[in-house]
Amino acid sequence: MSYAEKYTPKPVTDIFTGDTDIDRRQCTRTVPMKVLLLGCGRTGTTSMRAAMKQLGYVDTYHMMSCSIENPPDALLWMDALRAKYDGVGAPFTRADWDKLLGNSQAVCDWPACAFAKELIEAYPEAKVVLTGRDVDSWHASTMRTVYWRATDPELRLLSRVSWAAGMYYPMLRKFFDTFFEGDFPNRGKNVYLRHYENVRSMVPKHKLLEYRVTDGWGPLCDFLGEPVPKGVSFPNVNDNKDFVTRSRRRNRNQMFNVAAQILEIILLTGIVLYLIFYVQWHLYLF
Questions:
Q1: Reduced to 3 DSSP states, what percent helix, strand and coil does the chain have, rounded to the nearest 5?
Q2: Using an 8 Å Cβ cutoff, are 9 and 86 in contact?
Q3: Could you tell me the pTM of the whole model?
Q4: DSSP string, 55-89
Q5: CA 35, 39, 41, 44 torsion: positive or negative?
Q6: Distance of CA 76 to the CA centre of its chain
Q7: What pLDDT was estimated at residue 80?
Q8: d(Cα 240, Cα 220) in Å, to the nearest integer?
Q9: Residue 189, exposed/middle/buried by CB under 10 A (0-12, 13-18, 19+)?
Q10: CA dihedral (120, 33, 91, 9) positive or negative
Q11: DSSP β-ladder status, 106-107 and 127-131
C-alpha cells in the first residue's frame, strides 16, 4: 500500500490553519519545469522562492508547500523517499514528479534536494542552480530550525491526532533518517558536502550556477536569461529568528483544530443519543 493511499479529506473542523487540501495523485503538468534549485534547505531557499516569483516563474515548490500550504503533498514525498531508500514501491518517473510538481516552474529546498539525480533525469531541459553557504553556519542554522522541528516532541504527538501533522511529520522524520543517514548532528556536514559534489558531477557546467543569495540579481538573472528587476532589491527572507516561534504557533493552531474535531464528535454523539432517547420515550408513551 502506498502512503498516498492513506489520504483522507481535510476535516471541516480544521478552521484554525489555512491549509489547502489538494490530492495531487490525479494532477498533471500545467507549466514547464524550468529551474531545479538543488541546494539544501537553509541556504537561502526561502529568499530564492521569493526571487523566482519576482522574476515571473509560476510557483517555486518549497518545503513550505507541503508543511504549511498543502499537507497531502507529504504523502507523495513519503512514497518517493520509501521507493528510493527502502525499495518500497516503484521509483518516481517524470509522470510521478509531474503529479507532485506539475504546477511549479521551479523546485527548491528539502525534500527535493534528496532527489537531485532523479529530478535532473526527469527534467533534462531544466537549468540547475546550486544555492550554498558555509557548511558550519549552515549546520548550525539547521540544528536550530528544521532539525529542531524534526525532533519536536509536540509535533510528534500532534502527528497522532492532527490531519496535517499526521502527513507532514512522518515525511520530515523520514527525510532526516534517510538523506542525513539518521544522524544529522554528526553526519550532516559530510552529507552536505557530498551532496554538492554529486550535483556538480551530474550537471554540465553551462547548465549549472553555483550561487549564494548574497550574490544578488546579477548572476542569477544572467544565468536564467531574465532581465534584472529595476528598483527591486533581492529578497532577504530570513526566517531563522522566528522559526521556532512560528512552528509553536502552528502547533497551537493544530491543537485547536483537534479540539474542534473532538467537540464536533461530542456534539454529534449527544444529538444521536438525544434522538434515540426521544424516540424510545415516545414509543413508551404511545
A1: 60, 5, 35
A2: no
A3: 0.93
A4: TT-S-EE-HHIIIII-TTHHHHHHHHHIIIII--S
A5: negative
A6: 11
A7: 98
A8: 23
A9: middle
A10: positive
A11: unpaired
| CB contact at 8 A, 130 and 38 | yes
Contact partners, residue 89, CB within 8 Å, separation at least 6: 2, 79, 82, 83
Q: Cell numbers 525532533 correspond to what residue?
A: 151
The packing angle between helices 163-178 and 73-81, to 10°, is 30
- pLDDT beyond 90 at 137: yes
pLDDT for 229 equals 96
Q: What is the distance, to the nearest Å, from the Cα of residue 118 to the centroid of all Cα atoms in its chain?
A: 17
- CA distance linking residue 82 with residue 87, whole number of Å: 6
pLDDT at 286: 63
